[in-house]
Design a protein that fits this description.
Helix content: 25-40%
Number of strands: 20
Number of domains: 4
Radius of gyration: 23 Å
Structural class: alpha/beta
Strand order of the largest sheet: 2-1-11-10-7-8
CATH architecture of the largest domain: 3-Layer(aba) Sandwich
């Protein structure tokens, strides 16, 4: 099981004021759905906040546009610059304008985000999951082979380790919130390129012009606002891995340029005619059915074949019920650690509700619900009043078990309708072949056939 990491974990570097790093130190920024790193200069000041002009962007609704400053020199200081919701350091709430000294390992809390000063032991542009685990961010709870749904994830991890050993491009598929980003990072960490850079880009988050600038880089004057030359992510990832999240959202023109890069292993910055050699492995992720996108002309078939060296399909949380308990416990501990509180217990009655729910938002939704429950809880044990009971109803589950209940008629509302549509689309993309459609969706053929009956989908030809 892999947890969702972000949005979009682009490795960034602030303006380097001296051309030197402080002995490989960096600032790790962990928000609710993302993490990012910022190299620290030898001396200087890094502005921190929600505003786009800040050196360190904190995408958190509780953060002010101009929230804090990190002063770097022989010593490091964090200063609150008049934020609305405050800056917390070592269980101490800073007053506006107050400055306190911090060191490697210290944490700074801004809203629900945590900033941690870290020191690298290897390449400066590598994000290591070990660091995340050390800071209380859950990575991969141990799966028991007897747990419902865990067998599927064990197979995914076994295939991921085999894929990681080579240089083949990897395509990761699965619903939103299942943890595609961290599985991609795991493939990189277990690969021969693990000492190289790992850079990521959310293809759905930027306009076409900005997307190409981030990927390919640009020369000075290439477009309005390009006041200096900038290498793209493909250049900075040379010797490492590029992760393209939401790759199905790439515009067709950008797809053509990316295909050319993959084929030639050369990249040309915007505004330049001189190609530059790169050596990067590509990992892509999407919640779309790319075969169906190819069929309707929205995604290039040749790019799909290039990216799809091997496919890793992460099952939705509703098919991994045995993982809900360790995940819920992990999230509660993490959230309470950030809040400086003792973690409440998660009783069996609550776990029963969680395991019966369908989780259309997958692991990300589970994390958000546990955070809500912790904030509402006032005692040592979570109770039903801390949860939206009207939502946690078994009838709202979009998934089906493999028991006899699979043959019951499923409500065609909400996420259930969405799953039915995915099944129909998979059948269409596979010309009615049930085995291929099941493989495309990442579920066993037996489960796929039971869903055909449950959703009253006419049986196509057998595959």
């Amino acid at each position: 099981m892999i947890l969702p990491g972000p949005v979009r974990t682009t490795v960034k570097s602030p303006t380097n004021l001296t051309g030197e790093d402080v002995a490989g130190t960096f600032l790790l920024v962990v928000s609710r759905d993302a993490y990012a790193t910022y190299d620290l200069p030898a001396t200087g000041t890094l502005t921190i906040g929600r505003g786009e002009t800040n050196v360190v962007r904190v995408d958190d609704p509780m953060a002010s546009r101009a929230h804090a400053c990190l002063h770097v020199g022989e010593r490091m200081y964090i200063e609150d610059v008049g934020s609305v919701n405050g800056t917390r350091v070592k269980d101490r709430q800073l007053k506006p304008g107050e400055r306190v000294e911090i060191a490697v390992g210290d944490t700074v809390q801004i809203g629900s985000s945590v900033l941690i000063v870290q020191r690298r032991s290897a390449r400066p542009d590598l994000i290591r999951p070990e660091t995340l685990r050390d800071e209380g961010i859950p990575a991969a709870p141990v799966l028991q082979a007897t747990s419902r749904g865990s067998e599927a994830m064990l197979r995914v991890h076994a295939l991921a380790e085999k894929a990681a050993a080579g240089t083949i491009n990897v395509l990761i598929t699965g619903e939103t919130g299942v943890g595609k980003e961290l599985l991609a990072e795991t493939v990189h960490r277990k690969s021969p390129r693990h000492e190289g850079p790992y850079v990521c880009l959310n293809c759905a988050a930027l306009s076409e012009t900005l997307l190409e600038s981030e990927l390919f880089g640009h020369e000075r004057g290439a477009f309005t606002g390009a006041v200096q030359a900038k290498p793209g992510l493909l250049e900075t990832a040379s010797g490492g891995t590029v992760f393209l999240d939401e790759v199905g959202e790439l515009p067709l023109t950008t797809q053509a340029k990316l295909l050319r890069v993959i084929e030639t292993r050369q990249v040309t910055r915007l505004g330049s005619v001189k190609p530059r050699r790169i050596d990067a492995r590509f990992i892509a992720a999407t919640n779309r059915n790319l075969e169906a996108e190819v069929s309707r002309g929205a995604f290039r078939q040749d790019l799909y074949f290039r990216l799809n060296g091997i496919t890793l399909t992460i099952p939705p949380l509703r098919e991994r019920v045995g993982e809900i308990r360790p995940l819920a416990d992990t999230f509660v501990r993490q959230i309470c650690r950030d809040l400086g509180r003792t973690a409440p217990l998660v009783p069996s009655s609550i776990l029963g509700l969680l395991e019966a729910y369908g989780w259309p938002g997958n692991i990300r939704e589970l994390k958000n619900m546990m955070e809500r429950a912790v904030l509402l809880c006032t005692g040592p044990v979570l109770d039903k009043d801390n949860f939206p009971l009207d939502k946690l109803q078994p009838t709202s589950s979009p998934g089906l078990s493999t028991s006899s209940s699979d043959n019951k008629e499923i409500s065609q509302t909400g996420a259930a309708r969405t799953e039915r549509e995915r099944i129909v689309q998979a059948l269409a993309a596979c010309a009615g072949n049930q085995s291929r459609a099941a493989q495309l969706l990442g579920i066993p053929r037996r489960t796929f056939v039971s869903k055909l009956d449950a959703y009253q989908i006419p049986r196509p030809k057998k595959g």
